Amino acid sequence: MIDPKCMDGRNGMFYSATGYLLPCCWCEHALRPEVDEPKIKKLLVKKLSEVDSVQEILDTDEWKEFYDKLLTDPPKVCRDFCKKDYTHKSRHDG
Length: 94
Known about the structure:
The chain is mainly α.
């Protein structure tokens, strides 16, 4: 079971170095060539520079489907970082 931090404001959306909007910073890891994460890669519908507002991206079928299925069929990155018992460790934690 996951506890999506992107749905309640604990994690903000992420603007990638390549110009795309992602649900959070952890999803950026899923864009690496060696990672097979089609549910995240599907969200790369348009760059922010190609739209007039963030809402245009969020209103796409791909983003609606992502949030509709997030609790029932989450991508691996969400299962890894948003599982109920996940505790983020910073570099400063012992």
